[in-house]
Amino acid sequence: MLLRYFAKKMCQMKYSINCRGRLVDLHSPKIMGIINITPDSFFERSRFFTLDEILRQTEKMLTEGATFLDLGGHSTRPGASPVDEAEELRRVVPAVEAIMARFPEALISIDTFRASVAQASVEAGASLINDVSGGILDDQMFETVAKLKDVPYVLMHSRGTPETMQQMTQYNDLRMDILDDLQRKVAQLRAYQQRDIIIDLGFGFAKTIAQNYELLNHLADFEVLGLPMLVGVSRKSMIWRGLSIHPSEALNGTTALNTVALLNGAHILRVHEVKEAVEVTKLVAMLQEK
Fold it and tell me: How distant is the alpha carbon of residue 221 from its chain centre?
């Protein structure tokens, strides 16, 4: 009850983030489109290999209304095989450079847990760092990102590695344990003088399906952190396993859960399909006006 009391108060706050000198107002929810530069991401239609493919998808997502593009060169799905640093850099940096050359106003987020990849990507033109490990896989990440000028950091809750995370789903109290972990890491980031932090509860990362739904249902509890929240449930197993379908059939379920996320206070939706997510934000905004 205490969490919900403070969450109600915090929901009145308006957030904005500074992306390398460009202020992005999060009072109206924004969409982050997923572009995976990997051969093994769980949803095959999100995989792009050549610069031409990446640029075509970038244009499509920007045209459909994406505010951010999230590029990843290392799959972090449960059970994913590791990719070495050199290969991740080879995949990501040329893509960032190509996108910035063609679309200089694009806001690129880099999905990585490596500080070196984060720094090289920002030097190539990226504007955000999306760390699925919450700093646990590279102890240089917090300090590195904080030294980068005006680069927001997405702090995601997770445990272990992609190979081990699904064996680490035991919590004393799911929401309080995650809140404690995030509070501690936010304090560490603030100590490094990191200004803009975005919270991601890490749906599918060291959580069971039931735990994912508990977190989504109680998303507003985490407003006590006083930080904007990113929600990434697009086509994840909490949808397709629950419905006994394939990830390729999970768009309808994704739309349903994105609606719940927005009603519970999400500020950014990370998605594979931008057009449908933009439509959801517009409809929810109309609903909340009444």
Answer: 18
CA distance 240 to 67: 27
Q: Which of 20, 60, 270, 282 is catalytic?
A: 270
Are 6 and 224 spatial neighbours (Cβ–Cβ below 8 Å)? yes
pTM of the predicted structure, to 2 decimals: 0.91
pLDDT at residue 48 tops 50: yes
pLDDT in tens, 146-191: 999 899 999 999 998 878 888 899 999 999 999 999 999 999 999 9
Are residues 222 and 182 in contact, defined by beta-carbon separation less than 8 angstroms? yes
Catalytic residue among 236, 275, 282, 290: 236
Domain positions in the chain are 2-284
Token pair of 111 as six digits: 């999905």
How far apart CA 42 and CA 84 sit, in angstroms, is 19
Catalytic (active site) residue 60 = no
- CA angle, 218 as apex, 262 and 240 as ends, to 5°? 70
Q: What's 2-284's CATH class?
A: alpha beta
**Across-strand partners of 51?**
none
Q: How far apart are CA 160 and CA 158, in angstroms?
A: 7
At how many degrees (to 10) do helices 85-102 and 115-124 cross?
20
Query: Residues in the chain, how many?
Result: 290
Q: Is 270 a catalytic residue?
A: yes
DSSP alpha helices (H): ranges in 103-164?
Answer: 115-124, 141-147
Is residue 130 packed enough to be buried (19+ CB in 10 Å), middle (13-18) or exposed (0-12)?
buried
How far apart CA 174 and CA 207 sit, in angstroms, is: 9
Strands (E), the chain: 16-19, 22-25, 30-36, 68-72, 107-111, 128-131, 153-156, 197-200, 229-231, 268-271
Distance CA 182, CA 134 (A): 9
